[in-house]
Amino acid sequence: MSATRSSSLTAHLRAFLGVPVRAQTYLNLCYLCLAFPLGIAYLVFVAVGLSLGVALAVLLVGVPIFLLTVVGALVAGSIERVLARSLLDIDLGSRALPADASLRERTVAVLTDVSTWKTVVYLPSKLAFGTLAFVLATSVLTTGVSMLLVPLYYQEPGLYVGVVTDRPVELHPSLYVAWNKLLVGFEAVWTLDAWRVRTFGDAVFVAAAGALLIVLGLHALNLLARGARWYTAFMLDDGYAPLAGDR
Fold first, then answer.
1. Residue 95: which H helix or E strand, with range?
2. Which of 30, 108, 166, 188 lies 20 to 30 angstroms, CA to CA, from 137?
3. 86 and 172 co-located in one domain
4. Contact present, 240 and 115 (Cβ < 8 Å)
5. Domains identified in the chain, total number
6. Are 227 and 238 found together in one domain?
7. Number of CB atoms found within 10 A of residue 45's CB
8. Mean pLDDT across the stretch 175-183?
9. Is residue 142 located within the same domain as residue 180?
10. Cβ contact 205:199 at 8 Å
11. Spatial contact of 82 and 38, defined as CB atoms under 8 Å apart
12. pTM (two decimals)
């Protein structure tokens, strides 16, 4: 029993620490990094196109703008399915536009299909994943990398590597025990206003903390990618694909 438990613990530890050497981690990271600029572009395109199309519909010029926006969204949806298949390794189905119908029948079929509007909604909502990924990458990962490299530059002249606070941080650990109707206790005060990396041991400690922070950040990004994977499959599966390469 103990050997089985030890083997299971080792497997979980290997899975936890092995996230930086898995290829899927960086495919997920690539997908999430692309989500930020693409999400901004999609938001602008859909918001401007649909608002102009609806606002100018009474002048008839808004109708083609509206239809072109929907077609552009379907094209973008096709591109998103290709990205998801390549980077997130998910199988997304798609449908070709009706080939044996008139232009009016095709238009009605597309506009009345729920998958079309799921695609239109998906595109700007992709910005949410991109924003979360951007925050994680620029805060957690960059901090972890800078901490990991501390042993390489902590001795540079004129460079301060450490912690400086605006006001001292005080901790008050205490222990009280009731004894013979008396309350006997011990209380200490620990204050931190600055701490500087001065020795190689301190630098190694900071680097180890940075490595752990990177591992935790990559796990958080993988979890976000799994959420994006599920959401993309729900919103884009079996949608219309104007691009032949998406079928």
1. strand 94-95
2. 166
3. no
4. yes
5. 2
6. yes
7. 16
8. 67
9. no
10. no
11. no
12. 0.80
- The tokens describing 21, both together, are 């050497």
Q: What is the pLDDT of residues 45-77, one digit of tens each?
A: 999 999 999 888 878 888 999 999 999 999 999
Expressed as residue numbers, the domain containing 173 is 162-196
- Residue located via tokens 């990618």: 225
Q: Which two tokens stand for residue 156?
A: 């540079």
- Number of C-beta neighbours around residue 131 at 10 A: 14
Q: Which residues of 174-185 are buried (b: 16+ CB within 10 A; e: fewer)?
A: eeeeeeeeeeee
Alpha helices, H only, the chain: 2-17, 23-55, 62-83, 103-111, 114-136, 142-148, 150-153, 200-236
User: Do 54 and 118 lie in a common domain?
Assistant: yes
Encoding tokens for residue 145? 């990398």
**Cα 230 from Cα 100, distance rounded (Å):** 33
Check whether residue 108 and residue 221 sit in a common domain: yes
* Percent of all residues in the chain with a pLDDT value above 70, rounded to a whole number: 83
Question: What pLDDT digit, counting tens, does each position of 195-214 carry?
Answer: 778 888 889 999 999 999 99
Same domain membership, residue 134 and residue 24: yes
Q: Which of 55, 75, 52 is nearest to 65 (CA)?
A: 52
Residues 173 and 69 in one domain: no
